[in-house]
Amino acid sequence: MASALRRCPVFHCLLLLLFCFHCSQGFSRAALPFGLVRRELSCEGYAIDLRCPGSDVIMIETANYGRTDDKICDADPFQMENVQCYLPDAYKIISQR
């Protein structure tokens, strides 16, 4: 992923909006209470350990790799100048893992 962002000289982060659901339930996003949706954030150099209880599986709702503001995963001021840095294929890449 980092090679696709070479033009963005910033400290990157990965932001995921995800939820867990039971395979046997038949999937309906509309039926899930918002409390089951989790937001996970990992700054560059740190891993995320994503797990669901029991036999539930993870469904990725959205994913962003890059930087869209100067507050999350902040580093030195020079690296915060470009906040329009993202990887358009982040959702596709993360969903396949």
Automatic annotation (TrEMBL):
InterPro entries: Lectin_gal-bd_dom, Lectin_gal-bd_sf, Olfactomedin-like_domain. The keyword tRNA-binding does not apply. GO terms for biological process: signal transduction. It comes from the Eukaryota. Residues 1-26 form the signal peptide. Keywords: Repeat, Signal. Pfam families: SUEL_Lectin. GO terms for cellular component: extracellular space. Residues 50-96 form the SUEL-type lectin domain. GO terms for molecular function: carbohydrate binding. This is SUEL-type lectin domain-containing protein. It comes from Oreochromis aureus (Israeli tilapia). The gene is LOC116318677.
